[in-house]
Amino acid sequence: MSDTPGRITPTGTVLHVIVHGRVQGVGFRWFVRTEARRLGLAGWVRNLPDGTVEMRASGIAQFLSALEQAIQRGPEGASVSQTTAVETPAAESRTDTPYPFIILR
């Protein structure tokens, strides 16, 4: 897996993206949370005021890759047109949390 913005490798791997398209009002955040928890990832997902969804997850690189593939298709009713990697400063690259993957309001 190559390094891309928003991803710190090899030890503190983070996937931080903005998802564009029809991704609000279609269960997208619940879909992401379910997939992330299934993969054992920590992090969060939230709607943004401009109609996009922001997601930040950390964990094992191969599971982050699987989550990245899942968000490309999304749940039924969603239509993902693009994902944009978010630059994550090294100081904020870890998403270690005492809780599982959550939905932020």
What this model shows, in words?
This protein is an alpha+beta fold. Helix content is 23%, strand content 29%. The chain contains two helices and five strands. Helix 1 (28-38) runs antiparallel to helix 2. The model is unreliable at 1-11 (pLDDT under 50).
Helix and strand arrangement:
Blueprint: E1 14-22, H1 28-38, E2 42-47, E3 53-58, H2 61-73, E4 79-85, E5 102-103
Parallel strand pairs: 2-5
Antiparallel strand pairs: 1-3, 1-4, 2-3
Helix pairs in contact: 1-2
Question: Could you provide a short overview of the structure?
Answer:
By secondary structure, the chain is an alpha+beta fold. 23% of the residues lie in helices and 29% in strands.
Question: Given the structure, what is the number of helices?
Answer: 2
What best-fitting shape do the alpha-carbon axes yield?
globular
Range of strand content: 25-35%
Trace the largest sheet across and list its strands.
4-1-3-2-5
Distance between the termini: 31 Å
CATH level 1 class label = Alpha Beta
Extended strand count: 5
> Main sheet, how many strands, which sense, barrel?
5 strands, mixed
Helix content: 10-25%
Keyword list:
105 residues, alpha+beta, Alpha-Beta Plaits, five-stranded mixed sheet, 2 helices, 5 strands, disordered N terminus
